[in-house]
Each structure stands twice: as C-alpha cells, then as structure tokens.
Amino acid sequence: MKMALSYSVQGFILLLTASLLVVSEANTIVVGGSEGWRFGFNYTDWALQNSPFYINDTLVFKYVPPSDTSIAPSVYLLPDLWSYTTCDFRRAKLLANATQGSGEGFKIVLQQWRPYYFASSGHNGFHCSAGLMKFFAVPLPRGN
C-alpha cells in the first residue's frame, strides 16, 4: 500500500510538472486595435481593457508615415516609471522611428516578466506629455 501511494504521488508530481511546462500559444496584439498607434487615442485605457498581456506576446505598432499635414508618431521604450511618468526620453530606447510603423507595423515581443513602458516622442514630446500616446504592460507568465 505504501509503495502504491508513493507511485501515485510521484505520478501526480510528474503530471503537475508537465502541465506547468506546457507553453500556450503567444498572442499577437495590435496596439490600439483598429485605431492603431496615433495621436488622440487613449492607450492607457486601451492597455487596461486589453490586459493581461503575457510573456512572449507580440505587440504590433501600426501607424501612418509622416506627411505634409501630419506628424507621425515614434515608439520608445522608456527605462523606468519616472521616465514614463514625466515623459523623459533622455535614457529611452528608440524602437521604431516615424516610418517603421507602416505596412505590417513594428513588432516587439514581451520576453520578460517586467514593466515595459512605451511612449511616442512626437511633436517634441507632446504626444506623451498630453497623456495619450503612452502605456505600460507587465506581461505575466502564461498558465493553463
């Protein structure tokens, strides 16, 4: 009886471990949905409505390239909450310039469990400081 119970416990642990290792398919999410990445849309609200995001999900930034009548956005990854809150781009990493969001858009994979702070510096930072063209995501480990 004791040996059968031991095998049952070992089998349960093996089954539990295997189920935790199953990797669900990652999602591809267009930032802003049908609105894309543009000035005048609230991406903080969008992120709250479309969360949670998961590790290995791909965010796609799609936007119209600049023209004579419009200022195209950019995509920056800000290093920390302070930079995000104050729209300080001094230590930010440019992920996509004004032309890289056209066509299929610019893609970034959320590879780690950490905050990702995104913003546009368009119109000398006004896109960000207006509080619209910025959002953050903290991807979670994907469970079953």
Please name the defining characteristics of this protein:
single chain; three-stranded mixed β-sheet; alpha+beta; four-stranded antiparallel β-sheet; 144 residues
Question: Can you characterise this structure?
Answer:
It contains 4 helices and 7 strands. The strands form 2 sheets. Strands 4-3-6-7 form a 4-stranded antiparallel β-sheet. A 3-stranded mixed β-sheet has the order 1-2-5, with no helix packed on it. The longest helix is centred in the first third of the chain and has 20 residues.
What can be said about this structure in brief?
The protein has 144 residues and is of the alpha+beta class. Helix content is 26%, strand content 19%. The longest helix has 20 residues, at 2-21.
- End-to-end CA span: 33 Å
Overall mean pLDDT: 83
Which regions contain 5 or more consecutive residues with pLDDT less than 50?
4-22
Rg value: 20 Å
Structural class per helix/strand content?
alpha+beta
Topology at a glance:
Layout: H1 2-21, E1 28-30, H2 43-50, E2 58-61, E3 75-78, H3 81-86, E4 93-96, E5 106-109, E6 116-119, H4 126-129, E7 134-137
Parallel strand pairs: 1-2
Antiparallel strand pairs: 2-5, 3-4, 3-6, 6-7
